[in-house]
Each structure stands twice: as structure tokens, then as C-alpha cells.
Specification:
alpha+beta; Polyamine Oxidase, Chain A, domain 2; Arc Repressor Mutant, subunit A; elongated
Length: 170
């Protein structure tokens, strides 16, 4: 799995829609910032939320930091991206939540990262062990949707179907 840290921010107003240059976009990219990708909760137009995504070395550097430190780094990046002061962003901020996936006790990581030529490893990971252990999760999706929520959901259905098929044969 790759390192991943996300932050969810709720602001008093959706300031990114106040300017013509950013009003119609749902994704924003800042490759040099600790949070290189931001998105809105589009298509919900009334939302005042931004989600920040940090992966790879940037996420590894943020992982284990206090939520306050992560928030400060996120706001610094947003400040540069939207040309607003950190102070102004702080004043606009109503609520926030940091998700440090490496610190999660049950996952200890973020999305699966499948290197080129490694789909056979995904197939092996998806294979049941005996008649009792069935695997699901986005890292076991062999149809190209690894690393996605819908891939995780599909593999949950697949594992349940495998379990039920084995049970009916018993």
C-alpha cells in the first residue's frame, strides 16, 4: 500500500466558487504542495467542503504528525493555490478532520499501488485460502478498479459469492 493522508475541511463559504478562474472546477492540483490534490464534494453545489489528498513521500512525511501540524501544512498549500492568506483561511474554517491512513489500526495504509506488471500479485491476493478464508478489498480487484471504493465494494460482493458457492457445495 502507498502512504496516504487526507484532510477534510469545511469552510463558512465556498470561496473557490467566488472567482471565475476556479468557480467551475471540482479538482485543484498543486504538485509542489504537501497536499497535491484537492477536490470539492461535487456534484453537490451547496457544499462548503474541500478534501485534500497527500500520497507517497509527502504523505509519509506528514504521517504521525499531530492533526494541528497537518492542518497548518494543508492551509499553507491552499493559501498558495487560491491566493488567500492562511489567516483568512483559518477565519473561514468551521471544521476539519485529518485521516492518517498509516495510523489506522486495521488497515495501516492507504490505497493499493500496483506496479506495472504486477497484476498476477493482485490475482494471488484475491484467491481464497481453503474453504474458509476469503479476501476482499480494493487491492484484490482484478478488473482495473484497484484503489477505488467501487472496486472494494465489488470485491466484497465477489468474496461473499465465493463463500456462498463453497457453502452450498458442502
Amino acid at each position: 500500500m502507498g502512504a496516504l493522508v487526507k484532510i477534510l475541511l469545511r469552510f463558512r463559504t465556498p470561496f473557490w466558487r467566488e472567482h471565475e478562474a476556479t468557480a467551475r472546477f471540482g479538482f485543484f492540483h498543486a504538485p509542489a504542495a504537501p497536499f497535491s490534490t484537492w477536490w470539492t464534494l461535487a456534484p453537490h453545489r451547496r457544499t462548503r467542503h474541500l478534501v485534500g489528498w497527500s500520497g507517497g513521500p509527502n504523505a509519509a512525511a506528514l504521517s504521525g504528525s499531530s492533526d494541528t501540524v497537518v492542518l497548518r501544512r494543508a492551509l499553507q498549500g491552499l493559501s498558495q493555490l487560491f491566493h488567500r492568506s492562511v489567516r483568512e483561511l483559518n477565519e473561514q474554517l468551521e471544521a476539519w478532520h485529518v485521516q492518517d491512513w498509516q495510523g489506522e489500526p486495521y488497515t495501516r495504509g492507504g490505497y493499493a499501488v500496483i506496479p506495472s506488471g504486477a497484476m498476477d500479485a493482485v490475482e494471488a491476493l484475491a484467491r481464497p485460502v481453503g474453504r474458509t478464508l476469503f479476501f476482499a478489498g480494493e487491492a484484490t480487484h482484478v478488473g482495473g478498479d484497484e484503489g477505488t471504493v467501487h472496486g472494494a465494494l465489488e470485491t466484497g460482493r465477489r468474496a461473499a459469492d465465493e463463500l456462498l458457492a463453497r457453502r452450498s457445495k458442502a
